[in-house]
Specification:
Number of domains: 1
CATH architecture: 3-Layer(aba) Sandwich
CATH topology: Rossmann fold
Strand content: 15-25%
Order of helices and strands: EEHHHEHEHEEHEHHHEE
Structural class: alpha/beta
Mean pLDDT: 87
Distance between the termini: 38 Å
Strand order of the largest sheet: 5-4-3-6-7-9-8
Shape: globular
Largest sheet: 7 strands, mixed
CATH class: Alpha Beta
Length: about 260
């Protein structure tokens, strides 16, 4: 497996940050990430199937079970994009849902999908930067972010904001590609990520470079223990994580006490 140093929490104060394997100024990253998702928005769900061989659907079901939907609970879905987590929350009996994303193109696809599925009356859509959430303190019961945290420039700010908007007793859950824990999987995973995936991106989305970035961004993301440490530093209690598929993905959870 290609080993690249994952960023430490203190990197939040650096003037530069990662964009895949490139080092860019912090001001550059958001426009670059926005361009990636503008490019892939219409094919995002198809490419999720390609990237994970369909296993992301199982991971998301486990994630939604972890969120424990109930009618009286309000969900803030950060980087919610095309809506899978919000839809699963509502299907599971969850309450009012705010579906947000920094990328308007992704959110537009999510709105179209919500309309087709009859979820529109139960959703509020908003273009939101997860590093500065325009939601009052202690106003939601769950904060979810699935496959979005690694694309944020200041991950520590996202965690602090998630804690701020949670009510006491509320829970933050993050589903993200992580660091493989099974040695035998590593070379296969690297070959898939850096060999097959960009070619599939070129064929399906007509964009190989965006999918190369997505593969690189996974490798640059903090590993399981580091992300757990960042969550504790942000103020979350009872932080835990669960590896999925040998650590290809992981669910991190923390509570506001």
């Amino acid at each position: 497996m290609m080993n690249n140093p994952a960023p430490h929490a203190s990197d939040a104060y650096d003037e530069t940050t990662d964009f895949g394997y490139r080092t860019v100024s912090r001001d550059e990253k958001k426009p670059l990430v926005r361009a990636v998702f503008d490019s892939v928005a219409s094919k995002y769900d198809v490419m999720n199937d390609v990237m994970s061989l369909g296993i992301h659907r199982v991971w998301k079901r486990i994630f939604i079970t972890t969120l424990a939907p109930r009618p009286g609970l309000k969900l803030l879905d950060l980087a919610g994009g095309t809506g899978d987590i919000s839809f699963g929350w509502l299907k599971g009996g969850g309450g009012a849902t705010l579906l947000t994303d920094i990328n308007a193109a992704m959110l537009s696809v999510g709105r179209d999908r919500a309309t087709a599925r009859g979820y529109l009356p139960d959703l509020t859509f908003c273009v939101v930067d997860a590093e500065a959430i325009p939601v009052p303190d202690a106003s939601v019961d769950r904060v979810a972010i699935a496959f979005g945290l690694r694309n944020c420039t200041d991950k520590d700010a996202v965690l602090r904001e998630a804690l701020r908007v949670l009510r006491p007793g509320g829970r933050f859950c993050c589903l993200e590609f992580s660091h493989v824990q099974v040695a035998a999987l590593a070379p296969v995973y690297d070959a898939w990520s850096f060999g097959v995936l960009p070619r599939m991106g070129s064929m399906i989305a007509k964009d190989s470079e965006s999918y190369r970035y997505l593969a690189e961004s996974i490798r640059m993301f903090p590993d399981q223990e580091m992300l757990a440490s960042m969550m504790r530093d942000a103020g979350f209690a009872h932080v835990s994580y669960r590896n999925l598929s040998g650590g290809i993905a992981a669910i991190h959870s923390g509570w506001r006490i």
